[in-house]
Amino acid sequence: MIAYDIEDDAVRRKVADLLENHGERVQYSVFECRLPRKRFTVLRQQVLRLLHADDSLRCYPLCRWCRQAIAWQGEGAAPEDEGFIIA
Questions:
Q1: How does residue 61 score in pLDDT terms, banded at 50, 70 and 90?
Q2: Which residues have a Cβ under 8 Å from the Cβ of 68 and sit 6 or more positions away?
Q3: End-to-end CA distance of the chain, in Å?
Q4: Does pLDDT of 6 surpass 60?
Q5: In angstroms, rounded to a whole number, what is the distance separating the alpha carbons of residues 32 and 40?
Q6: CA angle 58, 26, 45 (to 5 degrees)
Q7: Fewer Cβ atoms within 10 Å of its own Cβ: the N or the C terminal residue of the chain?
Q8: From the centroid of its chain, how far is CA 4?
Q9: What digits encode the pLDDT tens for the residues 40-60?
Q10: What is the CA radius of gyration of the chain?
């Protein structure tokens, strides 16, 4: 799971576009990205290059067992794709 807090609209748009190409937006600034570890590392570096010093990026890896325990309310479905990291 990747979440961010970015002040600059242009930077926020670029980060969102990048993440939308690699995962599913589940909230305005929260994405679930099912990626192999190497691809996640590359994506994180791409995002970090866009950020300013006062921006915030948080990446939460979820193991297979954690994914099974995710609870949600409203639209959307549980994460799928066994064998990948949600980061």
A1: confident
A2: none
A3: 4
A4: yes
A5: 11
A6: 35
A7: N
A8: 8
A9: 999 999 999 999 999 999 999
A10: 13
Cα–Cα distance for residue pair 60/38, rounded to 1 Å: 15
Whole-model pTM?
Answer: 0.77
Long-range pairs for 19-24: beta carbons < 8 A, 24 or more residues apart: 19/43, 19/47
Residue type, 51: L
- The encoded tokens of residue 55 equal 């921006």
Q: Answer for the pair 34, 81: CB distance below 8 angstroms, yes or no.
A: yes
Tokens for 79? 């994460």
Kindly give the pairing relationship between strand 2-5 and strand 56-59: antiparallel
